[in-house]
Amino acid sequence: MNLSVIGAAGGVGRRVVAQASAAGHRVRGLVRTEEQAEMLRLHGAEPVLGDLTGDWQDVLDGADAVVWAAGAGVAGHAQAIDGDALIRVADTLPVRGPRRLVVVSSMGVDRPNQMPPFLAGVLRIKAGSDAHVQASALDWTIVRPGGLSDTPGSGRVRVAAQLPGGMIPRDDVAAVVLACLDDPRTVGRVFEVVSGEQSITDALGGLPL
What we know:
The protein is an alpha/beta fold. It has helices spanning 13-22, 34-42, 78-92, 117-134, 170-182, 200-205; strands at 2-6, 26-31, 46-49, 65-68, 100-104, 139-145, 147-149, 156-160, 167-169, 189-195, 198-199. The protein has one domain (2-205): Rossmann fold (3-Layer(aba) Sandwich), CATH 3.40.50.720.
């Protein structure tokens, strides 16, 4: 598979790049700096220098699928990245790029008032861009992980439309994303994911239709 990763230098994005490259996929990743580009090269991926607020579309060349792993964070420019940029990507793919898109979003997007107050504003922005993706004609999947950690992944998760909370290693989020790309049953699905007891394959297979 030829995979394009947007947000390839982020915590989840660089793990998607590393795991996909290790699995033999051809990976191109959008990064903003030469230092980030060198990190991708070390994983055997091809960096594409660009910026989501400017020129970025070259990362789509030759792609069979796109992973959105970008995010501004609670202190960043959430509307510009989590909101407007994801909407632009969703609008661009039918014209230039593949139909397959997996979005790494966030738990609580559909209930921001129940989440910690410092997250609520970002979650509301993500809700708008997630909805835009869902309304598109793309073959989309939206993955909403719980709290993220840098502990080693276990490959064991719990998924559902809504979960009461929980944590998940970034390694496992990346593994879930790649599993979605291999599983056509996840097209058109939105789900939350945290650490659990099931293998990723079994957990995704148990999602209700």
